[in-house]
Write a structure and sequence with these properties.
By secondary structure, this protein is α+β, with helices and mostly antiparallel strands. Helices cover about 20% and strands about 35% of the residues.
């Protein structure tokens, strides 16, 4: 009968420990992947053209962002607001839909805040300065925790700007993506 070398037993023990660590890491990673999902929220706004008397642009109104309720999206994932552990915005972008040739040169800076009753207004994304000649913008997200806003009956996103109204009526689409982390039994 062949007797194992003294170092071989130690090598097997190290290999077994590494295998156990790899399996544990895979389980944790798989739980991370199954208890998070993304929710897309979109909105449109029409910015009136500037006039001599009304040049400054203070608030950019996206009607669909005025009352965001994610109950249906949570239901589609088989979870409730009680299951939500964390919500963070992972992207917010703006695109000019028209008129042809329009860009964001009328903006100097732009910031979006989340709001809901009983919570402080919180910055979720911004861009300052707005680069010249752009027809689409990717805002820098703040990483703010949005769970208290999402589990409230309704959340709104408000946009504040520094800049002037565009020379022509301009249509803009906004697209936000939220990462929702929920409790999954067994993870």
């Amino acid at each position: 009968m062949h007797k194992p070398l003294p170092g071989a037993r130690m090598d097997r023990r190290v290999a077994l420990q590494n295998l156990i660590l790899a399996v544990a890491a895979a389980v944790v990673t798989s739980c991370d992947n199954i208890d998070n999902f993304e929710v897309d929220v979109g909105a449109k706004a029409t910015i009136p053209a500037g006039t001599v008397l009304d040049e400054l642009l203070g608030v950019l109104a996206f009607d669909e962002f005025q009352s965001i309720n994610l109950t249906q999206e949570l239901d589609n994932q088989g979870v409730t607001k009680d299951d939500v552990d964390s919500v963070r915005m992972i992207s917010l972008s703006l695109v000019i839909d028209g008129p042809a040739g329009a860009n964001f040169d009328f903006l100097e800076s732009l910031a979006f805040h989340a709001e809901t009753e009983g919570q402080p207004k919180v910055l979720v994304a911004e861009i300052d300065p707005v680069p010249k000649g752009q027809t689409s913008l990717e805002l820098v997200v703040s990483g703010a925790e949005l769970k208290p806003y999402v589990v409230a009956p309704s959340m709104k996103l408000t946009a504040t700007t520094k800049g002037k109204r565009p020379p022509k009526e301009t249509m803009v689409t906004a697209a936000a993506v939220l990462d929702v982390d929920v409790t999954v039994p067994g993870c």
